[in-house]
What does this fold into?
Amino acid sequence: MDKEKLPLRIGVGIIVLNHENKIFVGKRKDNPVDKWQMPQGGVDKGEDFITAMKRELKEETSIDNIKIIKEIDGWLEYELPKNLLGIIWKGKFRGQKQKWFIVRFTGTDSEINLETKYPEFIEWKWIEMNKLPEVIVNFKRNVYVKLLSELKKFID
It folds into this structure.
């Protein structure tokens, strides 16, 4: 498979902060080892980034009650490792180019429900922001390190 010929998938990612400034992470159904990630997903044709972000968040976590704090400037990208190329996203993409958002969760934890129509997570938790780079799969680590530095501009 010629990785260079494959495009990047356009997506969104969401940093969900609770009232204690802890971050929502979920354990993926397809990778149940001890790796966690923040909600993220693709942008549908004709969809703007905010609509995509709210839809993905709802589809993955059932979360509706949020206040948008910031749309992070620019794009963050990651490439899939060789062992996942051709498997994820039906083999159409080599990685993702993402627009990220920081949002405040204004609901209660009882609103969070992973039993959605197309479940992606099997477990969830709130973590301290400094733990972010430690919990993610290696190929997304650089993205999470950059997100952490963005986040630190808003939270001390």
